[in-house]
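Sync notes, pocket subgroup
Present: LS, DG
LS reminded everyone that the earlier model was apo-only. Rerun requested with NAP included. Inputs:
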Amino acid sequence: MRDSNHRVERILILGGTAEARTIARNLAHTQPDAIVITSLAGRLTESPELPGTLHIGGFGGLEGLMDFLRLGKITRVIDATHPFAATISAHAGLACAELEIPLEHVNRPMWRKHPGDRWRWADSMEMAARIASRFRRVFLTIGSQELAPFMRYGGPFYLVRMIEAPKRRLGFRDHRLVLGRGPLVVDEELELMRDFAIDLVVTKASGGSATEAKIAAARKLGIPVLLVKRPA
Ligand code: NAP
């Protein structure tokens, strides 16, 4: 789409989520003339197939993002990042305000609590690790970046799920690694939790449909779920 001055829109999607991928694919249909760039933190070795251009890796802090927006003549930013990616969202807010670039934020709704859900809340990963250490067989579905607090507690067996295998051996005393990413399926989550006799699921309070199956499976099995609160 062109604005009143016939300028081509140059859209930056801050991505790394299913929502960002959907937006990029939709824009290719709804605004075929727009230049669309999706940026990823670059934590995974594989990048998704997306229309438009990919920018992989950070921008170099707030200043770097501002330079990128200026030099790239970006006319619109869509923040479709993960609810826990607070730094990049804060940078986007500050940069867009300073440069007067319209910013849209994609809000991912939190899961709704249903009867039978046994939810507990933790304010931080450290608190979650402390609580989890009192259980025997813990399913850690918190990604790969914040496992260290859990490794400090030797007690439980940890079933650790990641999208990609880590480059180095994980420092748990007793663990098993499973690979997987959303969209997840309830039956498979049930099987996994049963097979490993899980007695606690630990997750970020990320919300969204792609990973909700673990919540539903835990409810069916009566397993408590420890939710780490979203950053402010
Ligand atoms: P963050 O704390 O918000 O960002 C840290 C730095 O990573 C940013 O300052 C930026 O580097 C770079 N970055 C993050 N997202 C980016 C994006 N979409 N495009 C370009 N650069 C980006 O986020 P995080 O360290 O990636 O993750 C924090 C939490 O969010 C973790 O719990 C993680 O599991 C969860 N999470 C993040 C993503 C994601 O795509 N970022 C996806 C799923 C889950 P510069 O300062 O150099 O610009």
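DG: The radius of gyration is 20 Å.
LS: The longest helix spans residues 86-99.
Action: DG to write up.
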